[in-house]
Batch of 4 targets.
Target 1
Amino acid sequence: MRRWGLPFATPCFSTIGSWLLRLGCYALSCPLPTDRPWVWLVDHTVQIGCVKLLVILGCPLADVPFGQRSLALADLRLVALVPMEQSNHDLVDRELEKATARTGVPREIASDHGTDMKKGVEQFCRRHPTTACVHDIAHYGANVLENRWERDPRWQEFVRQMHQTNQRMRQTQQAYLLAPKLRAKARFMSVGPLLRFAGRVARLLEGERRDERAVREYGWLLGFKEDVAGWLEEHGVVQKTIEHVRVYGVSGATLGELEKEWGRLSQRKSTGMVAGHMRAYARRYGGRAAEGERLVASTEALESCFGKLKRLEGDQSGGGFTGLVLALGAMTGNADEPHVRKALEEVPNKEAQGWIKRTLGHTLRWLRHHILGTAES
């Protein structure tokens, strides 16, 4: 590392890649404590091709930092990593059962309640009644808003006019007034910035120093003033619930804690209905915690892990899963020097490569190169 004046050579990228794979392989094989209750975060992630990747991250419940912060990747351990060409509730249940060999039967499983995942987890929990199944609060809240707003013609018209306004301004000098875009996927998990933008523009249109350019492009928004105020309030109830539950989890005390967190709500019927759904969530899942116990109700750390993997893969993420999925094991846990040293001593590169070959087989990139003679698209 001559650039920094350090007396050793810089490892090349292939060496660093090998280290990541070996750390991940060690994470899948090293012993985990089975004498304490665990929480599992489970989900599928997908890329191009027919393979889904079932990922189970776990943490002993006693180590969850309730009341201090939400779960972080350093708190979690990689329990299982399973590529699945087919996925149904029976296959999910089977893989969950296999994972008990590493941590014992978990006290809790948190997931986004996707169809296959929800049924598989529920089937597992029927066989293991001490395991509580908890719905991720962010997905639950997004579903509540989606079910209400997607059937509202005013919401549909608002989104349509926002899209048309953005299209008109995209190639003009007023491009700085573009509204945030809704994501095509999971749009109700990212609707906050658009609503806050609409609220700010509405205030600007009614202010003493009105911007004529904003009036010209967004004058139509004044007709949605009350709608936007209501949507912001409904979204605020959901968002405050998510933020509280991420840190404090759910318990028998959650409903009372949420009422304090929300403060006094308006008399809007729609806001009351959304708050009712959040109360139902608190009663249902908080009621699954034993007295004095809190359960994790957010899979945010697992979603973060998926995002980090895609950034690490870069362009490779467009070619299906590769051996880099093992890097999930390197992203989680507290990888201090003794841990890394032990992992590299116990897992040679050939063992990591063997896992990749046995588990993933030929990748889409390999097949493209084999058939077409090139890895380029």
Note: The first helix runs from residue 13 to 29.
Target 2
Amino acid sequence: MVVNAIVNGLLCCMLYEMVKDENGDFKPNVAHSFPVFFVKFPCAMALHFVLYPEVANGMSLMKFANNQQHLFVDYGSEISWILGFSQMFSALFCEGICIYLLTF
């Protein structure tokens, strides 16, 4: 739930960057050129829908490793948690970089 809020915040930041003009002022027009906005926004939404399951899988792996420690060998739950965290972090990092590239 927290990760979803972070990702949605990144999408809102991207929307803010696409709406403001070069001086930082909000104008009634959407972007510098509307065809560019028309392409960037669906790309950002598609990116979010593609990477969200990766974040959710990483978080469910971390939750399983925390709640079911008795099913693992010694230090196996910690290793599983780190693997889930690395999956979640890499997906969030990828989404952050892609949103940055789409914004600028």
Note: The radius of gyration is 18 Å.
Target 3
Amino acid sequence: MSNSLLYHAFGLKSVDYLGTDYKDGAIFFHIRTKDKFLECGNCGSKEVIKKGVVKRKFKTVPVGLKEVFLLADIQRLECKSCGKVRQQKIDYADEKKATPID
């Protein structure tokens, strides 16, 4: 598995593939946004400093009869432009529909 499947099957060009898990009949792709795509969730600036990671789960389209989830490492970023600390902007999902992972 590589970034190629994420790009061609799901249209995810801004993420790196980290691994896959198969649990309870579902497929879980672990992903992280590539550094060059990180931007402030407040103002959109790319002048940011990494301040930790939170994990989120997003449901996506099934593969055959299997449910598929993206387990994303979401960066917390300090913005050099606006001074805010926010989670990165996510271009592949509705941030409000993410499920936190403990």
Note: The beta strands are 15-23, 26-33, 48-63, 66-79, 85-87, 99-100.
Target 4
Amino acid sequence: MHNSESLACRDTAAAVSQPAPGQLLLSGRWTATCAGAVGIQLRALRPGAASAAVADARQIEAMDTAGAWLLHALLRRFQDQGATMDLQGMRPEFMPLFAQVGERIAEQRGATVAMPQVDPGLLHRVGQRSWDTGQQVLAGFAFVGEAALAGVSWLTHPSRIRWRAVMFNIRSAGVDALPIVAILSFLLGIVVAYQAADQLRRFGANIFVADLVGLAMLREFAPLITAIILAGRSGSAYAAQIGTMAVTEEIDAMRTIGLSPMEILVLPKLLALLVAVPLLTVFADILGVAGGMVMAQAQLGVGYVDFLERFVNAVSPTSYLVGIGKAPVFAIIIALVGCFQGLRTRGGADSVGRQTTRSVVQAIFLVIVADAMFSVMFSIFGL
């Protein structure tokens, strides 16, 4: 067996050559059976007076743990002589093993070893990003399905609903959000009326500011601004809370003792937002229209009574219900995205911040996409 292995490695044995004092050429199979002569070659190397050397690893055909250890020995030999070694051209498939062996050696020596970085190239990065995105989309669909099954379980067993957690989340996501929703909605109503004032004044159509403010706020701006506020406020809080629990292994502890994280953490937040977002949208409608009334009085001379009379005639119940109907969909998106990104947290505190950022970006993006789809659908049905 030994003779057959020696014959197999005769033409592909690992080798180290030094064409010049600052250059090394690595070739062959750096494995336990084919690297027998490398140790002798390493001892014959002379780093010389050069402070840096370059090792070309493009001709390495195979590598195992023994070969990776020998290659690290080569790097250490030059480091011990006060020179630095730049390892270039190593195949990407050898890098994980090389890095793992280096970490093990560093642990034993109580030091850190700098690992060479390999640029995977543009095509590889695009493919990897596409693959990661596809995996995240599939995981998201699986999470939605799991949440739906847990919701059905709640409906069939109402005694399992954690009302205390639901009420706490209604307070934190709904009641505590009233001030910021009020301020932004009122200012948005002022902005809409102000932007329309100049154009309406030119045509003597001042009274139609009530139509513009009413339809814009009730159909689009109020539900959208409320959802964006909650995506940045509550969605990020959900991701950070659940992500921190994942990092500290509290979620694993829940599963160990037979508790479902979906029922304990996700469903109370989802139910709370289903209640809070429509109510906040109604609140935003009122404040947005109030802001428009103030600006109509100041810029166009439209009195409050005239504004309200025109508003009642111009805005139908359908327009009001269209805006309210979007709110539950936005609530589901915000709650599920925040909790999903929180449960995907891995590693340490940096991962919590990364997943929190993703939850906000994805929630706002999906809310806007959903709003656009609603607009297309309502246009088709003539609503």
Note: Residues 376 and 382 are 10 Å apart (CA to CA).
